[in-house]
Design a protein that fits this description.
The protein is of the alpha+beta class. Among the domains are: 180-273, Thrombin, subunit H (Beta Barrel), CATH 2.40.10; 279-379, PDZ domain (Pdz3 Domain), CATH 2.30.42; 396-492, PDZ domain (Pdz3 Domain, Roll), CATH 2.30.42. Helices cover 22% and strands 32% of the residues. The protein has helices at 2-28, 32-35, 41-45, 78-87, 119-122, 260-273, 290-296, 314-318, 339-345, 375-379, 409-414, 434-437, 457-469, and strands at 51-60, 98-110, 114-117, 127-131, 137-146, 151-155, 180-185, 193-204, 214-217, 229-231, 237-244, 255-259, 279-280, 283-287, 304-309, 325-329, 332-333, 352-359, 362-369, 371-372, 396-399, 402-406, 424-429, 445-449, 452-453, 474-480, 486-492. Strands 21, 22, 23, 24, 25, 26 and 27 form a seven-stranded antiparallel β-sheet that branches. Strands 1-2-3-6-5-4 form a six-stranded antiparallel β-barrel. The longest helix has 27 residues, at 2-28. The protein starts with a helix and ends with a strand.
Length: 495
Amino acid sequence: MAAAKSKSHRLCLAAALGALLAVTTPALIPDAHAQGPDSVADLAAGLVDSVVNISTSQTIEGSRGIPAPQAPEGSPFQEFFDEFFNRQKDGTDQALPRKVQSLGSGFVIDASGIIVTNNHVIEGADEIVANFNDGSKLTATLLGRDEKTDIAVLQVKPTEAKPLKALKFGSSDAMRVGDWVMAIGNPFGLGGTVTIGIVSARNRDINSGPYDNFIQTDAAINRGNSGGPLFNMNGDVIGINTAIISPSGGSIGIGFAIPSDAAVHVIQQLREFGETRRGLLGVRIQQVTDEIAESLGMGAARGALVAGVTEDGPAAEAGIQPGDVILSFDGKPVTEMRELPRLVADSNIDKLVDVVVIRKGKEMTLKVKVGRLTEAAEKAEEKQSPEAVESPKPVVTELLGLTLSELTPELRAQYSIAPEVKGVVITRIAPGSAASEKGIVLGEVVVEVSQEPVALPDDVAKRIEALKKDGRRSALFLIANKTGELRFVPLKLDE
């Protein structure tokens, strides 16, 4: 009887456990979407014909030949040395020109024959050929290229017998970290290759240019994938594969793609003008650190700090000043410094936009007419006409690890300080002080302290004392180098 009860008890427990598992198991097992697509075969089959292999050739001028080594006198090997090395020359000391081949990827964006790839894939090429998945080849001409975003636009002439199939761009801004993506390209010259992965990160800055904003993916990207498309699971292009990080040269799961929302604007301009026409604001900016934000009394660090304004530029005409913190441009927030150049560059030239700034603790909106960025404008520096400076009796003050002096003609000459630079000159820096760690050097000039101009060392001392009374923990120094280039440096007041 006891055995029967025990068996019955075990059956009841098993039944209860089975019921419990039936209820809880579905919640524990991720759904099919979370595990990724079962297959991307149908998706890839509909896209692969629009992805091309880009092959280029470039003629490299011969360099001076290497002299043939001299074997010991009477050696039978001398004639072999002479024969081999002479084959590398045309009878002179100059080596013969040679052809260099390179491979990459690209994709069709217009059935009329428009192909997009990376600039570095076709840079310097004498001949560009687009190789299609069906084995056909078309010679391509360059419509335009942009080094800063590494994008190039090509044109081929399709035949009526083999019309091209264009891909369409999707929204890269809609992609989230963890979303599935697929890459098709030409890794190591192997031809159309499909790889799949996820978006690993967004808004990556890899220091390749001023507008870095890459999508990072773990989909296998290798040499030869450059210029190929990165797709979402709807088959829309959301990125252009362009770079990898790899000590071995092969994929280690860290690849980068230019976001489609950034690329489309550049591609349109290259198609229309053969060049990019970027917007210009006319400011030099730097990152707003926690120290700078605290010294400006603006709460959390955000925006782009204006370190300099180009004379007669759009910002100057709109009234933007050094020390302003730009919080938004044309209705788009600037959460960190590197976002502002991209927003300005993508703006239409001559467009009137709202720029929101914080100035001395107050938020204000300025109207700016966007200019056009040129090479000369990028290198423009603020210039002012020199004024005569009297030679007062030097006054010296030591503050925050700095020895400050009036900017006399003698000190201006000693440190080769430009005539237009005004303020208080730094003549000594205490070793190990915060000022030395911040990169301040002798001969630089303090122009402002927390957005108040200073002309004498005593002005600096009074400003620092006022900040301490206000409970500030740091002061924001506007520093000019000897040529007048400005930057902001926060210094702790308890130094």
